[in-house]
Write a structure and sequence with these properties.
- By secondary structure, this protein is an alpha+beta fold.
- It folds into 2 domains: 1-37; 40-72.
- Helix content is 39%, strand content 15%.
- It is built from 1 helix and 4 strands, in the order αββββ.
- The radius of gyration is 26 Å and the shape is rod-shaped.
- The termini are far apart.
- Bound molecules: zinc ion.
């Protein structure tokens, strides 16, 4: 016969419950962080109409959704 103390049973129940809540909370937090983390290389700045947009498909050249002009990704920004 298994003899379990009442307080031990309650403690085990609380630990399991808190573990489940913590696991759900952590998984939710991870997903949120990944959604918010937008890579800087996906943010484009149109040199023609000064429109800032996001394009995750292109790497080097992207078409501006506002004016339709092509924008090249410039790594080095130096004024002349
Ligand atoms: Zn534009």
């Amino acid at each position: 016969m298994i003899n379990i103390d009442f307080s031990l049973a309650v403690a085990l129940y609380v630990i399991i419950f808190l573990g489940a809540v913590l696991a759900v909370w952590l998984s939710n937090k991870k997903q949120k962080d990944r959604d918010l983390n937008l890579d800087d290389k996906f943010i484009w700045f149109c040199s023609v109409c000064a429109y800032t947009y996001v394009n995750t498909k292109q790497d080097l050249i992207s078409v501006c959704p506002r004016c339709g002009s092509y924008n090249k990704k410039s790594v080095d920004i130096s004024g002349g």
